[in-house]
Amino acid sequence: MGVNQERRRARRQQRGLLRVEEILRAAGALFAEIGYDKTTTNMIAARAGVSPGSLYQFFPNKEAIAQAYAAQAVADLHRVYDTILSPPVIALPFPAFNDTFIDALITFNLAYPGYFALSLASTISAPLAAALADLQGGVLERLEALFAALWPRGGPEERRLRGLVTYRIFLALLPLVLESQGEQQQAIVRELKAVLYRYWDETIAAQGGTAGVRPPGTVASNEER
User: Fold this and answer.
1) Whole domain around residue 196: which residue ranges?
2) Looking at the domain assignment, is residue 39 inside a domain?
3) Residue 151: strand, helix, or coil
4) 24 burial class (0-12, 13-18, 19+ CB within 10 angstroms)?
5) 47, 123, 143, 148: which has the fewest Cβ within 10 Å?
6) Distance CA 56, CA 191 (A)
7) Which CATH number do you get for residue 100?
8) Is residue 94 part of a domain?
C-alpha cells in the first residue's frame, strides 16, 4: 500500500471514529430527553446529522448503539473511580473527600445523561439488561473498594450494604440534579453532599480524625469560632 493510500485510509478511519462519537453523543442526549423506549434510530441519525444508511454502517440497531454508549460511559466512569481511589484523594479530610467524590460523579452524569436513562428503560432486551447489570455490578465493586479504603475496620458485608445504600441515595437524587440548572442545580448538589456526609460521618469519624468536622457548605457557629 502506498503512502497516499495509507493516508486516505487513516483519514477514513478518523472520520469513522468521529461519526461514531457523534452517533453515541446524539443517542445519549435523546435517551435522556425522551427515554430509551421512545428513541428511534432515525431520531438518532437526525440528531447526529447523518443519514440512517450511514448510521447502519456502524450500528445494526438501537440496542447496539445503547450497548456501545453504556460501555463507553462505564469506561469513563472507571477512570473517574481510578481518580477517586488514588492515594492523594483518599487521604483528604472526609468533608473534602465527600465534595470531590460527589462532584466527580455529578460531572460524569452530566457528560453522559443517557446512562441513567438506560437504567429506567422498560423495553430493553434481555442481553442489554444483562449487560447493564454487569456494568452496574462493576460500579458497585468499585464502591466497595472505595469504602474499604475509607472504612478499613468495617466488615465486607457492612461495607457492601453501605455501598449499596450510598449508591441508591445518589441515584434517587440524581434526576433532580440532571433536570435542574444553574443555582438550583448547585443547591441540589449541596443537599446531596449533606445527605451523604451525614450518612457516612459517624462511621468515618469512628476511624479517627474527622469527628466534629462540619458538613460542606455550613457556617461555623459562635461557639466554634
Assistant:
1) 61-205
2) no
3) coil
4) buried
5) 123
6) 43
7) 1.10.357
8) yes
Burial 135-152 (b: 16+ CB within 10 A, else e): beeeeeebbbebbeebbe
Q: How many CA atoms lie within 13 A of 124 on its CB side?
A: 23
Q: Give CA–CA dist 105/217, Å, rounded.
A: 18
Domain count, the chain: 1
Chain-centroid distance of CA 50 in Å reads: 27
Is 185 within a domain? yes
What is this structure's pTM?
A: 0.76
Looking at the domain assignment, is residue 38 inside a domain?
A: no
Q: Which phi and psi (to 5°) does residue 180 adopt?
A: -105, 170
